[in-house]
């Protein structure tokens, strides 16, 4: 036990009129939405790295947070950090959490020492999870922070780094399976390049594809029943990331024969960095059959960087969940808060309040999305817009050829008149629900 969250009671649902800053106003885990409990729809997870490992630094300044588990270079403090984490899980009552290996154990002087630390803390987690409802949504490996990863992991020009990466992922997959994790994520980090002057792109892509095939093979070898997920991540930190967005990742998966084995973990902030909306990335992944899970956060739209702030925009979140619900909702995936406090938000209750607010925003978005689906207005508008394609004549044209279509257009004097897309009316429609 720690005293970091001393005096903070478990967060309860108090309804929309509550003025308690540490109460849920919209997230009621037992509320039924479209035939399913809200908790089971949203499947919230807390990110261990931002909530507990991040020390509050930025490119112009160092640590601002002072926690009982600092410095994070000893097993004793790693266990204090775990104690605090599970105390927060108890306070918030969310069903899942997520980790990178480097978040939860101190770095050793060798691979063997790091592995020993990692296995010890995984055993500590297993013990704590045995008496709680919280489960592991996914595990992953941090293969971007240490200097060994400066030129990538699976795409590194040094085969020893490739080997170290493979060994690291094996240990993290073993730990994820041991803790009952429902997914395993490959977070590219530095799988990209700074300049083509020193890069063999074709070789790097082939190595990345081979690496991911090894991961899938190992999943089947050990009987891991979770999803393997890849997280699209543009421009950060490499200028040219190979996993730029959902469409790019799908093309990569197809090239290396993995489109039926691997799905995507999509992040709102990464979508914005790629020049997309979050709903675009979700709809793209859903259309391609590779939507797996999401990281929920937001960017500062003035900074142009991945600031990993907690969500606070109900219309954005509603449209994201609209496409998730249209795709059938989460199965093994969920909503991971890949979000962190601002470096001036120093206190324990700031960390609780941030998650409370994010969970409320997601709850409001989910309910709005469900209401839109149940109303059917957007689907009716789309059906009406494409109604011409439902005729036998239009369907037959898709199986025809250019010359036959030319004869029809020329012979019948076809001269189509444009029809309104009614965008503003549909935007007004969405605003009725949010």
Automatic annotation (TrEMBL):
Binds 2 magnesium ions per subunit. It is found in: Cytoplasm. The keyword Magnesium applies. Keywords: Carbohydrate metabolism, Cytoplasm, Isomerase, Magnesium, Metal-binding, Xylose metabolism. Its EC number is 5.3.1.5. The active site is at residues 100, 103. Mg(2+) 1 binds at residues 231, 267, 295, 338. One of its GO terms (biological process) is D-xylose metabolic process. Belongs to the xylose isomerase family. This is Xylose isomerase.
């Amino acid at each position: 036990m720690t005293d970091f969250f001393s005096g903070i009671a478990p967060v309860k649902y108090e309804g929309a009129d509550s003025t308690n800053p540490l109460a849920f106003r919209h997230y009621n885990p037992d509320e039924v939405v479209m035939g399913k409990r809200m908790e089971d729809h949203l499947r919230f997870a807390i990110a261990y790295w931002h909530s507990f490992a991040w020390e509050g630094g930025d490119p112009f300044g160092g640590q601002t947070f002072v926690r009982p588990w600092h410095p994070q270079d000893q097993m004793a403090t790693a266990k204090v950090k775990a104690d605090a984490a599970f105390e927060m899980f108890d306070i918030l009552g969310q069903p899942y959490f997520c980790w990178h290996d480097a978040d939860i154990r101190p770095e050793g002087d060798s691979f063997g020492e790091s592995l020993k630390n990692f296995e010890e803390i995984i055993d500590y987690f297993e013990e704590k999870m045995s008496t709680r409802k919280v489960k592991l949504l996914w595990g992953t490996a941090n293969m971007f922070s240490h200097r060994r990863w400066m030129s990538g992991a699976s795409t590194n020009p040094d085969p020893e780094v490739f080997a170290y990466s493979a060994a690291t992922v094996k240990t993290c997959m073993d730990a994820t399976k041991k803790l009952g994790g429902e997914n395993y994520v490959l977070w590219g980090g530095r799988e990209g390049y700074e300049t083509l002057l020193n890069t063999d792109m074709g070789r790097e892509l082939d190595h990345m594809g081979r690496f991911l095939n090894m991961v899938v093979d190992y999943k089947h070898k050990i009987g891991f029943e979770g999803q393997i997920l890849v997280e699209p991540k543009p421009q950060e930190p490499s200028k040219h990331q190979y996993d730029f967005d959902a469409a790019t990742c799908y093309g990569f998966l197809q090239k290396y024969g993995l489109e039926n084995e691997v799905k995507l973990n999509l992040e709102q902030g990464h979508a914005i960095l790629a020049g997309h909306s979050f709903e675009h990335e979700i709809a793209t992944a859903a259309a391609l059959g590779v939507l797996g899970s999401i990281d929920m956060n937001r960017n500062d739209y003035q900074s142009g960087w991945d600031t990993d702030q907690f969500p606070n925009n109900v219309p954005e979140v509603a449209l994201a969940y609209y496409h998730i619900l249209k795709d059938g909702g989460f199965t093994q995936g969920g909503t991971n808060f890949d979000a962190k406090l601002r470096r001036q938000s120093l206190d324990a209750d700031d960390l609780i309040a941030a998650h409370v607010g994010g969970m409320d925003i997601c709850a409001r978005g989910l309910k709005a999305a469900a209401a839109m689906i149940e109303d059917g207005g957007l689907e009716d508008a789309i059906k009406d817009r494409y109604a011409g394609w439902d005729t036998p004549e239009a369907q037959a044209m898709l199986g025809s050829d250019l010359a036959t279509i030319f004869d029809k257009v020329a012979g019948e004097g076809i001269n189509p008149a444009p029809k309104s897309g009614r965008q503003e009316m549909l935007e007004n429609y969405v605003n009725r629900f949010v």
